[in-house]
Amino acid sequence: MPKAATHTKIHDIFRKALEYIQDIIIIFICLLLFILMINVLFGLFDIMLKPVDFKIVASEIIFLLVLIEVYRLLVIYLREHRIAIDIMVEVGIVSTLREIILVGVLEVQPLLLVSVSIFLISMLSLLRYGSIRIQEKEDE
Q1: 79, 80, 87, 102: most buried, per Cβ within 10 A?
Q2: Where are the alpha helices (DSSP H) in 50-109?
Q3: Would you say residue 136 lies in a domain?
Q4: Domain total of the chain
Q5: pLDDT value, residue 35
Q6: Which domain holds residue 84?
Q7: Shortest CA distance to 33 belongs to which of 85, 1, 72, 80?
Q8: Which pLDDT does position 140 carry in this prediction?
Q9: Alpha carbons 128 and 140: distance in angstroms, whole number
Q10: Is 60 left (phi over 0), alpha (psi -120 to 50) or beta?
Q11: In a domain, 64, yes or no
């Protein structure tokens, strides 16, 4: 058996083993993320039983949406073994808006508000015109 063929075969076996280990780690992270989402939902129901503070409820709901997007990102990675940049940009946009909502637009310093606005415009234009959006394959 030639040395080059053995070398390539060993690399292929090693690469496959690393991919399986990485998939196991991603599945473990998905399970932890799912448990965290359930915990946030129970916390949200607990908050609703008390006098409602809009900031806290909005914060928890938006945090839950961010967790769902991250979960979706991990599922796409497991299915297709690619990183969905468009979903990462969406998570960044939602997380930034969550922080602005928590602090309150009126309490944010003007320079920070301008910089966040520039960031959001650049992220939205990247989503719209940047050709990073890949259509997900639908299972039939």
Answers
A1: 87
A2: 54-80, 85-103
A3: no
A4: 1
A5: 96
A6: 3-129
A7: 72
A8: 45
A9: 28
A10: alpha
A11: yes
**Token digits for 137?**
């394959």
If residue 115 lies in a helix (H) or strand (E), which one and from where to where? helix 110-129
Q: What type of residue is 2?
A: P
Residue 37 CB neighbour total at 10 angstroms: 16
> What whole-number distance in Å separates Cα of residue 48 and Cα of residue 55?
12
Q: What is the value of pTM for the model shown?
A: 0.73
Cα-based distances in Å from 85 to 19, 77, 99 = 20, 11, 21
The residue count of the chain comes to 140
Q: Which amino acid is at 84?
A: A
Pick from 104, 42, 93, 38: nearest CA to 66:
93
Structure-token pair, residue 136: 């997900």
